[in-house]
Design a protein that fits this description.
Elements (H helix, E strand, L loop, with lengths): L2 H7 L15 E2 L1 H6 L10 E4 L2 E4 L21 H6 L16 H15 L3 E6 L3
Parallel strand pairs: 1-4
Antiparallel strand pairs: 2-3, 3-4
Length: 123
């Protein structure tokens, strides 16, 4: 499929007004606090080190079907289409190309729906 057609397939029905992406470094310890369990913190999900604000989507809130991803970089789980907490980790580089493509599709999906608020700070 042509690149333009691929992008359209991931576009939401009602495109949100997204802010310009930020490159703010965010520590893993701060990301972990953004898991939807603390009302004073937003809800974040990172993919390949890029952090998205998913606060408005109840699926990432406690009890939601994707809460397992909140406050983490679950790149491996997304690539594997897994909801297992043990798969919710940032390591994905060793996966086969077909799984990397799935992860890239998830990144595109998120980037069309959620604000990019920063990147995971190097440890």
């Amino acid at each position: 499929m042509a690149e333009g057609g691929e992008s359209k397939s991931f576009a939401p029905k009602e495109p949100p007004q997204l802010n310009p992406p930020k490159d703010t470094p965010i520590s893993l310890s701060h990301l972990a606090k953004c898991d939807g369990n603390t009302p004073s913190y937003p809800t974040y999900v990172a993919i390949k080190g890029t952090i998205f604000d998913v606060s408005g989507n109840t699926a990432y809130a406690p009890g939601g079907s994707y809460h397992v991803f909140a406050g983490k970089d679950p790149s491996r789980a997304l690539a594997l289409s897994s909801l297992k907490s043990e798969d919710c980790r940032a390591e994905w580089e060793d996966l086969p190309d077909d799984k990397k493509k799935v992860l890239d599709d998830w990144f595109t999906f998120f980037s069309k729906r959620y604000n990019i608020v920063g990147r995971v700070e190097d440890s």
